[in-house]
Amino acid sequence: MPASGIPPFARVAFILACSFLPGPSALAEVLNIPGSGNSEFVLGELAKAFNARQTEHRVLVPSSSGHAGAIRDVSEGVAAMGRVGRPPSHEERASGLYYLPLGRDAVVAVAGAAVTAKGLSSDQLAAVFAGKISNWRDLGGQPAPIRAIGKESSDAIRRQLPNRYKDLVYADSVKIVHLDPHLIDLLDRYPTSFSIVNRSALAACKTKVVMLTLDDIEPSYENLISGRYPLTMEFGLVYRTGEISPAGKAFVEFVRSPEGAGILRKYGVLVNGGGKQ
């Protein structure tokens, strides 16, 4: 027997066994952040940047399960963190959820790539969804049928519309979708389409869609900062109070860093600070 006291075949077996032991990267935490489609694209971009700059953790942003999906999954312990398209209600926070606002985004009236109209008024926006305006020529564009697309009544953006459009109704002709990626797909597919969606989500479009002015105000970053643009939304993250994981903490720190804030601003999001219980 060698001086080491370990037979050669045993040393080989030991080395082979050690080679299959998990290294530091294999022990990294994988953080899934399910939830709202409103912030799916920009959170995905933040996750890509976060994953590229470190190997200790990995953040994944799965396809939309909606605001309600984030609240449910985090409340039930299925997910450590979720993404939401509006501040949680008092009832939603009652189970001990902590809300971290990430930014404010313009909610824009958007048209398909073939539309030549430049803008519309608040009354005209309501009339399009009500089916009272159904052709782009009535909005100053080339004649073409308006293919209006709307979200279901529980959508974060649609839920806040009554604050501005108290009598807003959707005609039967409006195509109702449940997930933002589906809405984006229809905007790409139909060049004379129309909808409303938060501005940062439009970065996922494959075609050059048209952002329309609303009441003669452009949905620009400058108008978002000044408060001139009238229609906005806030999105953020939720997790159980006092239960943020190491990966969640690291990701939040990255999002609030100059690099993370720069990514949000790149897509037109006005960065927020602080959190709300």
What integer is the average pLDDT?
Answer: 88
- Characterize the biggest β-sheet: 9 strands, mixed
Shape: globular
| Oligomeric state of this protein | single chain
The structure class reads alpha/beta
> What series of H and E elements makes up the topology?
HEHEHEHEEHEHEHEEHEHHE
End-to-end separation:
67 Å
Q: Uncertain spans, ≥5 residues at pLDDT below 50?
A: 1-6, 8-26
Percentage beta strand: 15-25%
Helicity level, as a percent range? 25-40%
**Number of beta-strand segments:** 11
CA gyration radius, whole angstroms: 24 Å
How many helices does DSSP assign?
10
Fold and architecture overview:
The chain has 277 residues and is of the alpha/beta class. It contains 10 helices and 11 strands. Strands 3, 4, 5, 6, 7, 8, 9, 10 and 11 form a 9-stranded mixed beta sheet that branches. A two-stranded parallel sheet has the order 1-2. The N terminus is likely disordered.
Produce a short descriptive summary.
The chain is an alpha/beta fold and 277 residues long.
Keywords:
single chain; 277 residues; alpha/beta; 9-stranded mixed beta sheet; two-stranded parallel sheet; 10 helices; 11 strands; 32% helix; globular; disordered N terminus
Q: What is the secondary structure topology, with strand pairs?
A:
Blueprint: H1 8-19, E1 29-32, H2 40-53, E2 57-60, H3 66-75, E3 82-84, H4 90-93, E4 97-111, E5 119-120, H5 122-129, E6 147-151, H6 156-160, E7 175-177, H7 180-189, E8 193-198, E9 210-214, H8 221-226, E10 232-240, H9 246-255, H10 258-266, E11 270-271
Parallel strand pairs: 1-2, 5-9, 6-7, 6-8
Antiparallel strand pairs: 3-10, 4-8, 4-9, 4-10, 4-11
